Amino acid sequence: MTTVILIRHGETLWNQQHRYQGQLDSPLSELGHKQARLTAEYLAKQPITAVYSSDLGRALRTAEIIADPHRLAAKPDQRLREMAFGVWEGLTRPEVVEQYPEIYYTRYQDVLSTRVPGGELPHEVVARFRDFMDEHLPKHGEETIVLVSHGGTLRLAIASILHMPLEKSYCFRVSNGGVSRLTYTRNDRGCLWEVSCLNSTDHLG
Questions:
Q1: With contact defined as beta carbons under 8 Å apart, do 129 and 185 qualify?
Q2: Average pLDDT over residues 147-175
Q3: Active-site residue identified among 9, 18, 136, 203
Q4: Per the confidence metrics, is the pTM higher than 0.90?
Q5: Which of 38, 68, 127, 144 is 20 to 30 A from 87 (CA-CA)?
Q6: d(CA 164, CA 146)
Q7: What is the distance between the alpha carbons of residues 36 and 10, in angstroms, rounded to a whole number?
Q8: Which one-letter DSSP state was computed for residue 154?
Q9: CA distance linking residue 56 with residue 125, whole number of Å
Q10: CA of 191: how far to CAs of 98, 158, 174, in Å?
Q11: C-alpha pair distances (Å), 123 with each of 36, 87, 157
Q12: What are the pLDDT digits (tens) for 16-25?
């Protein structure tokens, strides 16, 4: 079995401003650094053998803080990036509604097939996440690994793992610094994944 700990990066300045970040970047806020430190303390005594991260700065910095107590280097990978939101990136929701009302409301009704110009569709995010997992899970039998990623990507990944419709991924709350723990069982019972917790935030105080 492989235990996979999924973590969303700490809060950023753009999170505070409620801006679409996508694959642009914004530095961690003071609270975001604290969330990363508290998550690192929570995981410090657990037998983690690898820490992988989105290569975007907010996730990679969070991953570096988490990896440090284990004397590990965070390993960046583009496949763990946030969903690309194209021309919406850097804008607040009211700005998106004002500048791109037709796309916004069409996407609200059909998120699976409505592409923001320059952005990704949900199944494309899942495909790259699965590609990452297919490559790395075989390397970590009977180990515990950490993946630091983003809210949108993690919601879609969890929905996919649990065989839920991707359009229902928004039913998951994925908090900054939230920890989800899944075990890849490799069994033949038709249930390859077991979920022990989703979005635990007790360690954040």
A1: no
A2: 96
A3: 9
A4: yes
A5: 127
A6: 23
A7: 6
A8: H
A9: 15
A10: 44, 14, 23
A11: 29, 19, 10
A12: 999 999 999 9
Whether pLDDT at 93 is above 70 = yes
The full 3-state SS of 20-50, as one line of letters, equals CCCCCCCCECHHHHHHHHHHHHHHCCCCEEE
The residue from 123, 136, 150, 163 that is catalytic is 150
Ordered by where they begin, the domains of the chain are 2-84+121-204 (3.40.50.1240)
Strand-pair category, 48-53 with 75-76: parallel
The span from the CA of 34 to the CA of 8, in Å, is 13
Average pLDDT, integer, range 156-181: 95
Q: Between vectors from CA 195 to CA 151 and to CA 35, what angle results, nearest 5°? A: 40
Beta-strand ranges (E) seen in the chain are 2-8, 48-53, 75-76, 144-149, 179-184, 193-200
User: What gap in Å lies between CA 127 and CA 129, rounded to an integer?
Assistant: 5
CB 43 within 8 A of CB 181: no
Cβ atoms 155, 199 nearer than 8 A: no
Residue 149 pLDDT: 98
Can you tell me the distance from the alpha carbon of 68 to that of 47, in angstroms, rounded to the nearest whole number? Answer: 13
9 is catalytic: yes
At residue 193, does pLDDT exceed 80?
yes
